[in-house]
Amino acid sequence: MPIGTIHWLPWRAGRGRPLRLTRLGLQLAGFFVALLMCLLVGGAYLYGREVGRMQGFSGAGRSSAVLEAELCQLRARTDELTGRLIEIAEREQRILTAGAGLNMDFSGLFPGIDAPADPDAGLFEYIDGLDLQLLLAERLAEAELAAYDSLASHFLRITEQLRRVPSIWPAEGYYVSDFGPRIDPFTGAVRYHEGIDIAERTGTPIYSPADGTVVFCGWSSGYGLTVIVRHTPRLSTRFAHCSSICVNVGQSVQRGDLVARMGMTGRAVGPHLHYEVLVDGVQVDPDDFIIRSGFNAAVF
Ligand SMILES: [Zn+2]
Fold this sequence. Notes:
By secondary structure, this protein is of the alpha+beta class.
């Protein structure tokens, strides 16, 4: 049954037909309006979701391409770093073997790596290969550090040994007498000269030709005022005919330290230094220990 009437009033003249409203009619109209709204809202939602999905796909594609490009760059840098490490290891091995007599082989630390050349072939395999390459490079770098430490301590030891070799002239002056047989200035007979003589004015400084410890200071018959420095358990030097002594027994001296001054005490005909090098207590030619730079020039 009708529940109301809607009257239509046209703009132009004429009679409009009244529209009768029933409860069923209103319910049907409401249903269709609600259905239309649902369709509109649902369609808008599905459209939005599809657009979002398409945009997401294209973003992921871009991210993947950037990631692959960066991985390739990382691989190139790792290759370069690895190459340099291997080059350093090879050079160091030559120094260790030839220079220091140490036999160290790094080749086993860096086996060939079969990392995929292209990340497209398998991104995770590519990353695994890169990871392994970096791991081996780290191992090689650690081995390098250990080798450098060995090399440093080796050369430190050599330097320490070299500082205990009497390799410089102990005094300035005139080289007046060699080591070996010569005519004795006192007797005129042939006598073995057990050192070398360097002549200069009385008071001329006498320096220790190497690091060591003073083991004797004092008078020693024909040697006069004498200093003996022990450089190693087997190697020592003697400085004779001094006018004065500048060190004490037990004192440590370094190469170039003043130990005495030149004189003519003991069996001497003029002011000079009688200089001896002794190995296991036996005199040897001091000249054999002196390092020269250029013609007959001593170096510190
Ligand atoms: Zn002499």
